[in-house]
Write a structure and sequence with these properties.
CATH architecture of the largest domain: 2-Layer Sandwich
Number of strands: 15
Structural class: alpha/beta
Distance between the termini: 41 Å
Shape: globular
Number of helices: 10
CATH superfamily of the largest domain: Dihydrodipicolinate Reductase, domain 2
CATH topology of the largest domain: Dihydrodipicolinate Reductase, domain 2
Oligomer: single chain
Radius of gyration: 21 Å
Number of domains: 2
Helix content: 25-40%
Order of helices and strands: EHEHEHEHEHEHEHEEEEEEEHHEH
């Protein structure tokens, strides 16, 4: 492609986006208000232009798309400004910190005919892509419930709580595997480090026909864990993102009724082979393909709205002490 990509924010996660787009030979500009971070990028990418002003990014005519990896609180305004300038946008999750703002951005991108993609990275993970196929092919049978753990010690945020920082990954994948959004959610948690900012939450997603999912996230945990388990009525699947080799295992286990009694069935387990490609590289390549073909991304602004709706409903449940919140309440509040 002749036109270039600008990456806004080259800190904790942004530097990885800079690396990938540079390796894909489309990086034209790096922007960050932190002069020290920019200095580091100068040493690594001497042929790429640098700026500390977001406005400079929007003025550059050869910049076709803006990749935004800034703090979540700034996403809404920066994405909106970029869209209004006719730039395609790839923004890290979450799209915004409010559902109504996310819907406004998705609508605006559609009206202006620009690509809007949200960085729900797990959707591009080879293990998750394969797991989607396993579920959609009916290999697990009917999916009864899903649970996920995403925990670590830090990195603690101050602009958003653990729910908005960690849970978007799992909510996105769970809704995809269930092939629909939940009817309601319940959420409970605790704020120990900063008043009003939850450090740990447990969220239950209630789907049609009694199906459920549970999401446990924490940045106050003694060890790192990133695991997703899918329970079907025939088989079960475990995706362990921290495992070096056996990241996705299918367990031929379940419950069978014999003479009126439930009896556990335990037979074989199968480790599925995965392509050894960095998920972020696949995500960046997908964005570039969408730019070329003018196609809606897998994790478009529209798909991100489902995640925002779940997160906002979960936040409402947290404030109400853990009571159930219908997702339609979020839409009603938006108007």
């Amino acid at each position: 492609m002749d036109q270039k990509i600008a990456v806004v924010g080259c800190g904790y996660w942004g530097k990885n986006l800079v690396r990938n787009f540079s390796q894909l030979h489309v990086l034209g500009l790096i922007c960050d208000t932190n002069e020290s971070l920019l200095g580091t990028q100068t040493e690594l990418y001497s042929d790429v232009r640098l700026t500390s002003k977001f406005e400079d990014v929007l003025k550059e005519e050869d910049i076709q798309a803006v990749v935004i990896a800034t703090p979540a609180a700034s996403h809404y305004l920066q994405v909106k400004e970029a869209i209004l300038r006719g730039k395609d946008v790839f923004v890290e999750k979450p799209l915004a910190l409010r559902y109504d703002q996310g819907r406004e951005l998705a609508d605006l991108a559609n009206e202006r005919g620009v690509i809007l993609m949200v960085g729900h990275l797990l959707e591009y993970h080879p293990a998750v892509a394969l797991l989607k196929d396993v579920v959609s092919n009916g290999d697990l049978g009917e999916v009864w419930y899903i649970y996920s753990h995403r925990m670590n010690l830090g990195k603690v945020r101050q602009e958003e709580d653990i729910l908005w920082s960690f849970a978007p990954h799992d909510v996105s994948v769970i809704c995809t595997l269930m092939n629909e959004e939940p009817l309601a959610v319940t959420a409970s948690g605790g704020s120990y480090l900063q008043s009003g900012i939850a450090d740990v939450t447990v969220t239950t997603l209630l789907f049609p026909e009694g199906r459920r999912a549970h999401v446990f996230v924490s940045w106050l945990h003694p060890y790192k864990e990133q695991k997703l388990v899918v329970i079907g009525n025939q088989k079960m699947a475990v995706f362990d993102d921290l495992a070096r080799e056996e990241k996705l295992i299918i367990y031929d286990k379940g419950i069978e009724w014999q003479s009126g009694f439930p009896v556990p069935r335990q037979t074989a387990e199968t480790t599925l082979l995965l392509e050894e490609t960095e998920p972020l590289r696949l995500e960046c390549e997908h964005f570039l393909k969408c730019l070329r073909d003018r196609k809606e991304p897998l994790t478009s602004g529209r798909s991100a709205l489902r995640v925002l709706k779940v997160l906002e409903a979960s936040g409402m449940s947290l404030k109400q002490g853990g009571g159930p919140v219908q997702l339609t309440e979020v839409e009603k509040n938006t108007g």
